[in-house]
Each structure stands twice: as C-alpha cells, then as structure tokens.
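Issue 218. Parser rejects a valid record. Input:
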Amino acid sequence: TNYKLARTPSSNGSERIFTFSAWVKRGSVTDNREILFRPDSGNPWADLEFQTDDSIICMTNGGSGAGVVTNRLFRDVSAWYHLVCAVDTTQGTAANRVKIYVNGVLETSFSESNYMAEDADTTNNQTNSFTQIFGDSYGNHLHIIF
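Output the parser choked on:
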C-alpha cells in the first residue's frame, strides 16, 4: 500500500464523532479508487474516497454496506474541491450520522444511503490503528493542499 501520510493517535479519541476536511485536486480521472482517509484495520471503520465512477463515498462500516454515495460525479481535474466528511453516529436521525460537503454545500442526492446504527463505534481515532491520509493502493492521482 502506498501511504502518503499516516497518523496514529497518541490516545483514543471519539469513535462516534469526527470530521475529515481537506482541499483536493484530482490529478487525473482513472478507473481506480482514490482514498482520502481510512483506518488501516478493524471493522467497522469510516473512510472517504473517490469511487471508480468518480462519485464520492463516505463509507461507515468498513465495506459491509453502510455509507453514502453521491449521485454527483467529480471529474474536473482543473478544479479544487473542499471535501468534508462529518460522522456522528450519536444522532437519532439516520441521515444526520454521515454528511458529505463539497465546496461548503451539503450533498443531499445519493445513489446509496445506508447508515450505521445509532451510537455505533468505528475504529477511527484508536491508538491501535493508524489512519492513512491521501494514500491508496492504486497509484498517485491526487494533489493535496492543507
């Protein structure tokens, strides 16, 4: 795996409430997934990535079907996107447990919208699991600015 950046928390943080935010610019549109953040192990976990069809997914159950996938596609390689994935599994309303913002606008149109159970824990923010940031197994297709 080709990790660009990685972070291992020095102490456990919230596994139910966290936000990932970054400016990204796609270097090319490919048939590969482009991972923006993801814990390296454990289940369930949350990640944010560009899918092979150029939609964005914020997956909140480690590939077992929970998450939201935008209908909107992101294929403009000249554009900078400000992406935010906000996870809060303590919310009573399922649709409030995972939110994706692109350039400050809340995405509300999804091809998939399956949410984790209320108060579900993820493996994010645990000392025994580092989080890869802007790393993937598929090549180097993102330009990142912090």
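Fixed in the parser; the record now loads. Residues 32 and 138 are 6 Å apart (CA to CA).
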